[in-house]
Amino acid sequence: MIRKCLFPAAGYGTRFLPATKAMPKEMLPVVNKPLIQYGVEEARDAGLQHMAIVTGRGKRALEDHFDISYELEHQIRGSEKEKFLSGTRELMETCTFSYTRQVEMKGLGHAILSGRPLIGDEPFAVVLADDLCLNLEGDGVLSQMIALYKQFRCSIVAIQEVPNDQTHKYGIIAGEQIREDIYRVNSMVEKPKPEDAPSNMAIIGRYILTADIFDLIADTEPGKGGEIQITDALMKQAQSGCVLAYKFKGHRFDCGGAEGYIDATNFCYENLYKKGL
What we know:
By secondary structure, this protein is of the alpha/beta class.
């Protein structure tokens, strides 16, 4: 079934400047754990073992985080501080990590296409690490979506309703409702003005994609902002086959900006860190 998860992580993180001037936004800590680790843990919990990370210049910290730090581990060995690395060590032991670079920033579609050599010809998941998703009452968002994929065997995007005046921040879908929480997509627009939006259902940073998406992206012309948009490729896929949109269960925090990041930190501190989770 699905074995691999792609992490597009080459972006500049401009919404969080100056913090992201020299540090990858994916390494921003929510309490004491970086965003990229939350994403990898969600993928691991969904049964995925191969993490494919698309990086860029100045992103070496991502590779270093999922590697052995001999000096640090020697210094804390046998102390109480050693337990703080146990989660990272477990990921390193149970998952494999591979990396490639997106040489030019040409949009999310191009970033996903850059990961093709790491994915190959098979279905895969995509996680945008600055969208932190947590479900304290059941399966994580990616686990929910993989269960749907086993049933429908097509591309799936995670969605949530947003205020009408915020549609310009997201890819927006519309479609035929086939279940209370599932839509068959027939319209998908990248960052429309509120008056042009087909709905208020916004795509967030979780995807299940079938392998044919790579050829569709490769044939997609630059769209809004001069970038290659994944929404344009998904719209082609929806017209020729099927793309589903899923209203997930859980909380989502937009950690690419200060407000969402602060909300995520407060939530994780109260519901995870203080409880030792």
